[in-house]
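Ticket reopened. Same input as before:
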Amino acid sequence: MAVKILLERELKLIIRNPGFIIGLIFIIAFYSFIGKMTGYAVETSVREMYTASIGIINRDSSLFAQRLVEDLNKTFGGRIYSVSSVEEGLRRYGYVLVVPENFSLIENFTNRSQVYLYQKIDKIPSTTTLSTQMSSLIAGSINNIIKDLLIKMRGYSPEVMNKSVSVYSEVLFRDKFISQGVLMSITGFSMFLAFITAFIMMMVGTFSTQLMVFEKIEKAFEMLLAQPIHRRDIVIAKLISSVVQSLLMGAAYLIGMFLMFTSMGSAATSSSQPFSSENYTISFSINDLIVYTGAGAQILLLIGVILVLGMIYVGALGIIAGLLASDERSAGYVGGPIAFFFLGVGFAMMFISPPLDYTVAFISSFAVVPAIVYVITGSLLNDYMFIMLPLIGVSIPPIILIIIASKIIDRDIVVTGLRIRRKMLRRT
Amino acid sequence: MVMRDSLERYAVYIKDLVKIFGRDVVAVDRLSLYVEPGEIYGLIGPNGSGKTTTLRIISTLLRPTSGEVYVFGINVIKDPIRVRSIINYLPEEAGAYRDLTGLDFIRFMLSLRFSGPRLIQAVEEAVSIADLGNDIKRPVRTYSKGMKRILALSTVLASKPRLLILDEPTSGLDVEKSIRVRDLILRYNREHQITIFLSSHNMLEVEYLCRRVGILYKGRLIAEGSPEDLKRITLSRNLEEVFVKKVAEIGS
Ligand SMILES: Nc1ncnc2c1ncn2[C@@H]1O[C@H](COP(=O)(O)OP(=O)(O)OP(=O)(O)O)[C@@H](O)[C@H]1O
Ligand SMILES: [Mg+2]
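Engineering reply: fixed in the latest deploy. New output:
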């Protein structure tokens, strides 16, 4: 009986809180928007793949190779065009397939026989643009055709057909050729970093809101406000404290993950599956990142800087929420959607390929997570604008927010608390 | 309008002060009053009459909707930091950080004003005012309501500001503690020439402490004067009677 009464009160408190309602609406609207965007991006890239034209360079003049190209053209609905160089082909068609010399000397078919597939990417790679699907599509088709041809032209019996051709893929990323494997690993690692960043940022928001709200709850705040200090110092102290708190938590989290994967890794090794642990993948990706990006180990420093700026950013947002909130409950409701926003952006980055464009790099960096992706890309391409602009972009919101927080803490609202009245809500 | 340099002759000078919350809650309505240096001025009035709001405005916590407020000639709106350096404020509900010990709280608050030997001296003074014995080294979360009140009060007294603003200083205190606090207020007022602007619901206390009293009603000053004058004019035996008569008179 008492539970029912208590529960009723709890539920009423939640439902009557405008912050909660706004938070709900925001999260639903934002995530369905992200869903639409990613859905569209995935659809476009799949459609692109199935309608893509492919340039071909056939360096093998044998009849076998000619038949291979002809049959491949049929499989791809006549979308295969002969080109004279990889660069030209990429410029015109986006994909180029190279059949090397002596490819058709079937006796040389080993398990390592290769054709070469080149793909051109002008956007930041994401899991959708940079898929292995095109290579596997081509590999599958070629292998089927070769099987047919070997039977038809050389009279092989199907039983001995255990040889296959593999596709070696390279990507022309704007103006730099990179192995698809490496680019995939770096892209995957960027996504991982983006998520970690969003996650750690989420913590800062919670911490800073708490610090601010608890100041009010503990009732020492009014006395503090009457002391002869610049009130922005209160903001800055809380900001630093929440960033440090979250860095410690984040570090503990990473160390924990590392230990977890290391233990998993050694277990995997002892059961003779050497490269299956995620720990391996992660350290491998860090290695790729350092080796293949121009910036060397400094790239990690850059990412660290962005992380800290992002933390200050969300920390300041949290403090503003805490300053405006009249109680802990409403502060929590503001903090939630803020955190989910950055997580959502991190998620979207996996599917949406932002263009290699300076303006976009600058503006999208206001949402922090894209800055990481751009900075990695910039050092991969040795284009320092893609490092500078995101860094500037990611610094602007925190500075503005600190200024706003410093202004708010000088106003009545800090003492009286923001009250969003139902009337006000209805009017808008 | 009083001349600028003569403003400095007032510890508090308030002219046509208005504070409106939201769209239409008039908390303070064209309030004008002054407090002379060295005096203890008491603001009394029913719940919601605007006492806390007025004290918060003087303490730079709220901005007035209109009107002027000067503390020793310093404009509260234009120069809040200078005002804060010569005042201190005991809020209506003063708490302390729960995880700090009483001593740490005193040290924290006072270190925002003093450093070096002056800090040490001020902390010692606050500790002796608080008179909490060994409890001063226990976390504030273990304190009773009255202990917290004493802790906060000792901190603001030991800071010896030129103007001390006290919002219901003895609320929540038992009889003995209330008497002690009143004596402390009187002592600091006399020995250190601290001007005191306080609000209270305790007429006995106001009569005992204050040289002048202002009665607020719905944000307006409806009577002002020394307790003796007010009693004489309204033919009352004590301040409580004055209060009831005045409020009834205006209310009708
Ligand atoms: N933050 C606020 N938002 C809206 N109205 C407020 C706010 N603070 C105070 N008020 C209103 O202003 C008026 C004066 O309040 P105030 O707290 O100054 O009264 P008070 O004289 O201190 O009362 P009490 O004796 O109960 O402490 C009241 O009507 C109150 O409802
Ligand atoms: Mg009050």
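The interface with chain B takes residues 218-220, 222-230, 410-412, 415-416, 419 of chain A (CB under 8 Å). Residues 2-43+185-416 of chain A form one domain. Please confirm and we'll close it.
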